[in-house]
Structures are given as structure tokens and as C-alpha cells.
Amino acid sequence: MEIFLDKFRVGLIVVFMFCFSSPVFAQPTDSKDDLGTTIEAFGKLSNGQKNMILGATGMPSASSFNIAGLAANLIFGAIGLIAFVYGKKQSSWVPMVIGIILMVYPYFVGGTFLLYGIGIALTACLYFFRE
What we know:
Layout: H1 2-21, H2 23-26, H3 34-43, H4 47-56, H5 67-90, H6 93-104, H7 112-128
Helix pairs in contact: 1-4, 5-6, 5-7, 6-7
């Protein structure tokens, strides 16, 4: 928990330093579109600066974010939730455990192909190890 709080504090410091040192934020603007100017200022940064800011705030970097991985997290997380609820209603521990694993494993696996491979294997385990 302490490591998380330290990273969170560092992320806040980096964001505040970026906001108050950027010339876009230093000049008063008459427009009400502050989000638009923030996005515009973020778009003018180099990729290294963007990744540093995103990494300090705990968000995935622009280069590591992909839709296929997000879809895998969503699909197998939903299958895991359904398996967990089914196992709980049936008082069967096998679908409950596999459901928990399906919901948790995407947080520890980085590659997209690995995400889909493990997810398909665990979903197959739900079918073959049913009672």
C-alpha cells in the first residue's frame, strides 16, 4: 500500500509541475474550454514526455495501450464473473476458483496473445472440469 501511495504522490507532483510550468496554463485564457487546451498542450509533447506523465499517474503508456488487450480483459473478466456467480449458486468450488482466476490473471499478463491463450485455456477448463 505504501508503494502505491508513493507512486500516487509522485504522479500528482508530476501532473502539477506539468500544469503550472506549461506556457498554455501560465497564460490566462478567456475561453471556457479548459479541457480542450489541456488536450492540445498534451498533444504537443513528445512521446517520451507523454509516457513519463502517463506512467507517473499509473495510466498505461501510449505505446503499450491496445484495444485487443482491453477486449481480452473485458471478455474473460465477464466470463470469470459469470463462472464465479454460477459456482457460488451451485456451491461448486471449481467454477468459483476458475472464475476468480479468469477475473484476476489479466492484471499479471502483458502480451495480447498470452492474454487470449490463457483465457481460452481457462475457459476450456470450465467446460472440461465441470461436475
